[in-house]
Amino acid sequence: MVEYRIDRHSGVATYVQIVQQTKQALRMGLLMPGDRLPTAREVVEATAINPNTVLKAYRELEREGLVEARRGLGTFVRRGLGATPADSPLRTELEEWARRARAAGLERDDVAALFTAVLDKHFQGDPS
């Protein structure tokens, strides 16, 4: 089950963070079709956010066809997003790269900016 981590200082709306983290879990294969998302109550207890925020995020995911709400049962994953399993060799390489970047003295924001620049260069015009 996914555990949401809310960064109140990121400038990103809380519901968007939930949507993004759910999509990341789908891409990484951590959530699979048929899996149940945490209930709004579980998310509220873990993150101390408003239940309506969780419901808004889940409605957005449902609108995108990624999850479906089943009355009285919860919210379940309808489909996955990617083909990058959590144990991918690419992840291992990226983990090593991140360790080297940190050892070189780069801050998280520096690494994020560098990674984003490389992504933009290689995926320019990519519709996804």
List the helices and strands and how they pair.
Blueprint: H1 14-27, H2 40-47, H3 51-63, E1 67-70, E2 74-77, H4 89-103, H5 108-122
Helix pairs in contact: 1-3, 2-3
Task: Give a brief rundown of this model.
The chain is mainly alpha-helical and 128 residues long. The protein folds into 2 domains: 14-77, Arc Repressor Mutant, subunit A; 89-122, no CATH class.
Could you explain how this protein is built, in words?
Strand 1 and strand 2 form a beta hairpin. 51% of the residues lie in helices and 6% in strands. 16% of the residues are buried. It has two domains: 14-77, Winged helix-like DNA-binding domain superfamily/Winged helix DNA-binding domain (Arc Repressor Mutant, subunit A, Orthogonal Bundle), CATH 1.10.10.10; 89-122, no CATH class. The protein is mostly helical and 128 residues long. A two-stranded antiparallel sheet has the order 1-2. The mean pLDDT is 90. Helix 1 (14-27) crosses helix 3 (51-63) and helix 2 (40-47) crosses helix 3 (51-63). It is globular, with a radius of gyration of 16 Å. The longest helix has 15 residues, at 89-103. It has helices at residues 14-27, 40-47, 51-63, 89-103, 108-122, and strands spanning 67-70, 74-77. The chain contains five helices and two strands; from the N terminus they run H-H-H-E-E-H-H.
